[in-house]
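Thread title: Can someone regenerate the structure for this chain?

I was given the following input by a collaborator and told the matching structure tokens would be attached. They weren't. Posting the sequence so someone can regenerate them.
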Amino acid sequence: MLSNDNKNYLLAFIATLVALLLFGFYCLANPPDETSARWYAFCFDCIPDAFIATVAIPIVYWLFVRRGITGLSVDESPTRLGVDPGARLADRQMMQNIPSEVAKASIPETVGVDASRVLVVVDVQNDFISGSLKAHKPNKVLQPVNDAIKLAQSNGLLVIFTRDWHPEDHWSFQRHARHCVMNTPGAEISDKIDVPPDSLVVNFGVNQGDVAYSALENPSLTMLLDNPKIESVYVIGIALNYCVKCTCLSITELGKTTFTIDEAIASADGDPDANEKDWKELQDHGVRRLPSIDSFAKHLSQNNRVNRSGESGGI
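Best answer:
Regenerated them for you:
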């Protein structure tokens, strides 16, 4: 089924083609005199260019905007998706603010007390917790997620929340249940999650053709985490087999030391064999596993002691 914008382009193409045909028939039925001959010749010379344009414009649009090459589809017309323009404007403004946060990331005071460590909370959204694409026992990880966020805050880590944020015609709806449609309740972070006021929220999967498994498909998040001051990234959230795994792999490609906190990660369907395969893939790529919130707390405490001893010249 064609999306609304594809339908509009098809109708525009047909209308242009019909107009060109009517013009040709008119010229054949009304032979030009000397005065109009030059205009007819000029118009006929333009017909091939007009025809090419009607074909090229939708192709370029699909390749560069819908496929996310320009990253501008967040500015698509609100009426295309039947979304309230005010809501889309607010989302667009929020997305435009992310690059400014990237610029700030080079200034330690704006990143947090400890600019070298980041906690990434992946997709703790309503549709993955209680909605259309519910993960396996997601409620079991809610308290550990909140505990990890609290620990991160108390230890000066920057906390970043990611959100699946899809247009109504996102490709993944052909493979998975319809989920996390932008500006719908299902796409919002669960109200059972404590979101610190100074945390960042990053959307990804905003284009129809985005793969939307790694949150680093958002180039602003990639730029932020690629900051040389950031050394370690801790990842929690939903779901192990898709966005958590792919986000971790993308972070390792930046050369960052990457940790998972297993107790605060839900799997997609609870398949032990599939989960073990994904855990092994993460470990093979250098991702380190912290089994519990307690181990996360001990790890942060040990790092804090090392940092303090380094600042005092060593012990």
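Residues 4-69 form one domain.
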